Amino acid sequence: AGIASAAVNLNAPNMDVQNIYARKTCDVNATTGVPNAGYVIGTTGLFGGTARIKGCYVDYGGKHGIGLVTDADNSDVTVEDCRAEQCSPYGSQSPWVSYMSGATKTGNIHRYIRCITDKNSGLIGSTAGQSDNQSIWLSHNSGSGTQFAEFEFLDCLFPSGNVAVGISTLITMEGCTFGSVLNYCPTININRCKFDNKGLDILTTDPC
């Protein structure tokens, strides 16, 4: 499983992908104004294993900027020193997503290290985008399962916007700036983090 519509599709295990600069891949239906659901960098097919995405810049995708959405077991994926800015201003979007649909998939780890989103939302009539409490990063599945063992955020700058975390046993956040965090993981470790919008909410129902 994975996204088939992306400017850059990653479709192999144990990849080390560096220094991709890709922008403005979103298009919309001229009649309805609805954006495509494509990503700028997306995963599909065989992606997984021990993988790294490093030093990339993306913005203005149709749905997500960097989307890790391939079903796997026991994968360990690091996104390092990457920047993903606002996607389409015309529909539901977030610069980042971690997603798996397979209900029986388990043991996966996604690590985000020194990643940045400054403007999380598109703004019609402006290329600059805007910062508000819409999603910057979210995790979700197709409705069942706990596909992840851990999400890890180290020294990330995600000001103003929202980070919504579920479908994982553990979340670790250290040295980060967030607008707000909605957490539905049973164990959360937070150290030296700043919240500059609505703070931290510990939830009893999945926010996604």
Structural class: mainly beta
Compressed to H and E, one letter per element, the order equals: EEEEEEEEEEEEEEEEEEEE
| Number of helices, counting only DSSP H or I runs of 4 residues or more | 0
Strand fraction equals: over 45%
Low-pLDDT segments: none
Question: What general outline do the C-alpha atoms trace?
Answer: globular
> For the CA atoms, what is the radius of gyration?
16 Å
> How confident overall, as mean pLDDT?
88
Characterize the biggest β-sheet: 8 strands, parallel
Spatial strand arrangement across the major sheet: 1-4-7-10-14-16-18-20
What assembly state would you assign to the polypeptide chains in this entry?
single chain
Number of strands: 20
Helical content, roughly?
A: under 10%
Distance between the termini: 19 Å
List the helices and strands and how they pair.
Layout: E1 6-10, E2 16-18, E3 21-23, E4 39-43, E5 50-54, E6 57-59, E7 64-68, E8 76-80, E9 83-84, E10 94-99, E11 108-113, E12 121-123, E13 126-130, E14 135-140, E15 148-154, E16 157-165, E17 168-174, E18 177-183, E19 187-191, E20 194-202
Parallel strand pairs: 1-4, 2-5, 3-6, 4-7, 5-8, 6-9, 7-10, 8-11, 10-14, 11-15, 14-16, 15-17, 16-18, 17-19, 18-20
Antiparallel strand pairs: 12-13
